[in-house]
Structure formats: C-alpha cells, structure tokens
C-alpha cells in the first residue's frame, strides 16, 4: 500500500487525519485540494510532501493550460508548508523538467521522484540498521519521535524504515514511541505502523522520554528529519531537541535517518530555517473540546532545531555523517 501515488490522472493519498480509526484515500484532482491536504496534514512527512510537490507540478501542468495560472499554482504549492525542504525540492525538480520539456516529461520526472523515494528509503534503512548493529550491538531497542514511517514517505519510511530493517534482521527488541504533541503523529500513526509490523512497542508521553532514556531501556534514538543544514543541524518535529539533550545525558546515540533530498546545503545552519508556527487551536483544544481558557496566547512551533553537536549520526542512502565527531553534510569527502 502506497501512502501517495499517481492513478487515473490524479493523485491518490491516504488521508492521515483519519488514522488510526479509518484507512481512507483522498483522490486529489486540483492543486488547491493538494495544498489543503498538505496544510491539514492529510499528507505529511517530509519525503511524502516532497513527492506530493513533484506530483503536484505534474497535476498543475495538466489542469492549468494558461502559463500565468500554472506559475501561480506551482508557487502556491511550493509555499504550502515552509520547513521541510523536500517540498520545495520536489517542486523545483519537476518544474525544471516542465519548463524544458513540457507536461509529459514533468509527469515522467514526478514518477521518477516517487520511485526514488522508495529506493532511497530502503537503502538508508539498511545502512542505518547495519550502523546500529555495528555500533550498539546485535539487539537494539529504539526510541523514536513523531512519525517517520511508511506514512511519511511513499511506502517504507526513514527512521521507522531503519526499525523495519532491524526487525527484518532479527535485531529489534523494542520500540518506544513518544506521542508527539500536539497532533499525536506518534500515538496515531507510528504506533499504528508498529502494530502492523508486529514490532514490540510502548507508547510514552513526550515528557516521559527522557526518563525512559535515563533508565537505560533504549540503545539508540532514531528520528527522521525535515531539513538538515550544511553544518549538520537537524530540523525535525518539535520535541526532537529535548530528546537529543536527554540522549546525550544518557550516553545513547542520537541517529537521524533521512534521504539526501532532506539535506539542504544551501542553508548554512538551523538558525537560517523558517520554523513553521501552527494555529493556536492545535494546542488550546483537543478536537472540539477546549483545553485552555479562551484567548490564551500560544507559540505552537511545529519543529525544532537540534544542533549538530548533539547528533551522533545522520544516515542517508549514500553515507553516514557523524556531526558530533565533526562530520558535516557539506564535506565532500565526508566522515563515516
Ligand atoms: O508536521 P509533520 O507531521 O509533517 O512533521 C514531519 C514529520 O513527520 C517528522 O518531523 C519526521 O520525523 C520527519 S519526516 C520523515
């Protein structure tokens, strides 16, 4: 089952707002609907929205014969969410092909982006699993955060892809998943995927994660990323930075699994990244139920920045970078 795909001249995607209770698919016919799906997190996760951006340009080329309308639609799509670099990357890659060769070539490029996501996730997951077994031992208990699984990609996952590969090799003992306030991607999505995989797992509230690490229950923290800057800073779901601090204190490796399309060499450091701030209602209410007094001010950051010196390893389909040991994504030789 693919999280996102191209079928019958339109985009088909799992509606992640309905999980874990219902598995429903959206059939997306217009760029406006695609933007709405990305903003509402019906389609979410950096690699998946990269693929959505790529397919969206192909869709725009088919729906907007007028060049001005087409440009406006593509620009709006590119800006649908600001933090994950994959969205702009997917849009730019297919737009270049559209400009040079037209709509059919754009669709071919978008389908290549989709196929590459599947391949890259498999490769980085294998590499990550091997690195973990070599580094922490033959049996690995993992702590993860947010959802970096099949649902955040086309079909395999990044951080949860590493978990899948560990499981395939008989090297996975347990997964601790943090619920991931405020939209609960961990509780709703990661736990759902882990149950489907048949992996032993336990859900913890975000604020318990440091204690779980301190108790020695975990051999490695493995998370995904929405953007990795040239110096090795990692931008990921809010709550990742405190997890990295706790991992450092507990002496547990902090591992980031992401495709090269998440590596943004044009941005020097995490300080230069636009961190998405989302609506107050996401934290002042739980669905229709109000939690905080009316009018409460909020600062609802969707992501945070984990400084490079707290990141033990970044694993991609091409390499292992060791930022805490001085490795940098923009180092052409790389350290692994
Ligand atoms: O706001 P989201 O759910 O789109 O956030 C992105 C994420 O799922 C995570 O931060 C993830 O770890 C990176 S994407 C594999």
Keywords, please?
about 325 residues; Four Helix Bundle (Hemerythrin (Met), subunit A); Rossmann fold; 4-stranded mixed β-sheet; 10 helices; globular
Q: What do these coordinates show?
A:
This protein is α/β, with parallel strands linked by helices and 336 residues long. The protein has 2 domains: 113 residues, Four Helix Bundle (Hemerythrin (Met), subunit A); 201 residues, Translation initiation factor eif-2b, domain 2 (Rossmann fold), CATH 3.40.50.10470. It is built from 10 helices and 16 strands. The strands form 4 sheets. The chain has a 7-stranded mixed beta sheet with strand order 6-5-4-7-10-15-16. Helix 6 links the parallel strand 4 and strand 5. The protein is globular, with a radius of gyration of 19 Å. 5-S-methyl-1-O-phosphono-5-thio-D-ribulose binds next to helix 2 and strand 9.
Please identify which CATH superfamily of the largest domain we are dealing with: Translation initiation factor eif-2b, domain 2
Helix and strand run: EEEHHHHHEHEHEHEEEHEEHEEEEE
**Which CATH architecture of the largest domain would you pick?**
3-Layer(aba) Sandwich
Helix content: 25-40%
How many domains comprise the coordinates? Answer: 2
Q: What oligomeric state do these chains adopt?
A: single chain
Low-confidence segments, given as residue ranges, are none
Rg measurement, Å: 19 Å
Fraction in beta strands: 15-25%
The neighbouring-strand order within the major sheet is: 6-5-4-7-10-15-16
Shape: globular
What is the number of strand segments?
A: 16
Largest sheet: 7 strands, mixed
What structural class do you assign from the helix and strand content? alpha/beta
């Amino acid at each position: 089952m693919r999280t996102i795909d191209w079928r019958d001249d339109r985009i088909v995607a799992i509606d992640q707002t309905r999980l874990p209770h219902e598995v429903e698919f959206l059939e997306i016919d217009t760029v406006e609907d695609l933007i709405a799906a990305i903003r509402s997190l019906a389609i979410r996760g950096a690699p998946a929205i990269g693929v959505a951006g790529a397919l969206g340009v192909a869709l725009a080329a088919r729906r907007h014969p007028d060049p001005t309308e087409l440009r406006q639609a593509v620009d709006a799509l590119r800006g649908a969410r600001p933090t994950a670099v994959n969205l702009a990357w997917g849009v730019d890659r297919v737009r270049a092909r559209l400009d040079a060769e037209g709509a059919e070539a754009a669709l071919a490029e978008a389908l290549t982006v989709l196929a590459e996501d599947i391949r890259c996730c498999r490769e980085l997951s294998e590499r990550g699993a091997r690195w973990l077994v070599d580094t922490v031992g033959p049996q690995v208990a993992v702590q993860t955060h947010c959802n970096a699984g099949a649902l955040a990609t086309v079909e395999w996952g990044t951080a949860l892809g590493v978990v899948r590969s560990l499981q395939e090799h008989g090297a996975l003992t347990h997964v601790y998943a943090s619920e991931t306030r405020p939209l609960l991607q961990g509780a709703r999505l990661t736990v759902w995927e882990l149950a489907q995989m048949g992996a032993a797992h336990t859900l913890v509230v975000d604020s318990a994660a440091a204690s779980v690490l301190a108790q020695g229950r975990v051999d490695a923290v493995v998370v995904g990323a929405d953007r990795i800057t040239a110096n090795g800073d990692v931008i990921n779901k809010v709550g990742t930075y405190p997890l990295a601090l706790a991992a450092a204190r507990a002496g547990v490796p902090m591992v980031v699994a992401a495709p090269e399309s998440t590596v943004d060499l044009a941005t020097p450091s995490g300080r230069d990244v636009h961190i998405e701030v989302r609506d107050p209602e996401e934290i002042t209410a739980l669905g229709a139920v109000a939690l905080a007094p009316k009018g409460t001010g909020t600062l609802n950051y969707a992501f945070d920045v984990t400084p490079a010196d707290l990141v033990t390893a970044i694993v991609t389909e091409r390499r292992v970078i060791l930022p805490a040991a001085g490795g940098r994504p923009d180092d052409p030789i790389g350290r692994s």
